[in-house]
Amino acid sequence: MNQRRLVVGISGASGTIYGLRLLERLKEHAPEIHTILVISPAAARTMAIETDYTPAQARALAHECYDYDDLAAPISSGSFETLGMVVAPCSIKSLSEIAHCHAANLLARAADVTLKEGRRLVLLVRETPLHRGHLALMARAAENGAVILPPAPAFYTRPRTVDDLIDYVLGKTLDQLGIPHRLFTRWGEEGE
Questions:
Q1: Would you tell me the crossing angle of helices 92-99 and 132-143 to the nearest 10 degrees?
Q2: What digits encode the pLDDT tens for the residues 19-32?
Q3: Residue of 159, 156, 157, 181 whose CA lies nearest to 171
Q4: Which is nearest to 140 in space by CA: 97, 177, 179, 169?
Q5: CA 99 to CA 108: how far, in whole Å?
Q6: Distance of alpha carbon 109 from alpha carbon 115, whole angstroms
Q7: Strand order from edge to edge, sheet including 147-148
Q8: Which long-range contacts (CB under 8 A, 24 or more apart) does 104-109 make?
Q9: pLDDT tens digits for 51-95?
Q10: What is the pLDDT of residue 188?
Q11: Cβ–Cβ < 8 Å for 177, 122
Q12: Whole-angstrom distance, CA of residue 103 vs CA of residue 4
C-alpha cells in the first residue's frame, strides 16, 4: 500500500471542484489508492464561494488530512513513500512556491518532496490569461519535473454537463499517474 498513497493539495485558485471531485473519483479506487489531503486557507475560502462543500466535508473525502502549516506531517519527508501528488487547482501563488522550492507550508513542502524523490507531481494550474511571469513559473516547475496540466477540457467527447468537463480533466490527471479510469471516452473509442 505504501506506493499507492496519493497526496492531493487544494490551493486557493478558482476551481476547487477539481480537487473535490478528484477525491470523490479516487474513492472508487479504495483501498488501492489511499488519499492524503492538504487544503490551503485560501482554498477553504474559495471552496465556500464556489461550492456547497465545507472544508470538513472535503477532509471527509480523503483517508487522511494534514494542516497546511504542519511541516512535521509524514508527507513532508521523502522517506514517506507515495505514488505522487496532484495540486488541483494550483494557484499561481502555489505554483510560485513550488517552482522556487519555497517550502514554507505543507502543500509546497509535499510538492517539493515529490519532485526531489522523482515522483509524479501534477499541477492543475488554473489562471487565464497568463502573463510572461506565469509562463516562466510553469516552465521552471516543468524543468524541475512537474507535469503542468491546465484544466482545459476537450470537446471531442461531446460533453453534455459541467461534470463531463470536470471528469475529462480528472481523467487526464489520472492518466498522468497511471491510475485506470472510465471518466471519458478516449479518441478512437467512439464506437465501443
A1: 50
A2: 999 999 999 887 89
A3: 181
A4: 97
A5: 9
A6: 10
A7: 64-65, 34-39, 5-10, 84-90, 120-125, 147-148
A8: 105/40, 105/68, 105/69, 105/71, 106/38, 106/66, 106/67, 106/68, 106/69, 106/70, 106/71, 106/73, 106/75, 106/76, 107/9, 107/11, 107/38, 107/40, 107/68, 109/71, 109/75, 109/76
A9: 999 999 999 999 999 999 999 999 999 999 999 999 999 999 999
A10: 83
A11: yes
A12: 24
Q: Residue 62 corresponds to which cell in the numbers above?
A: 480523503
**Nearest to 173, CA basis, from 135, 147, 155:** 147
Grid coordinates standing for 184? 471519458
Q: How many CB atoms lie within 10 A of CB 158?
A: 10
Instruction: Determine the residue type at 35.
Output: T
CA distance 6 to 133: 29
CA 68 from chain center: how many Å?
15
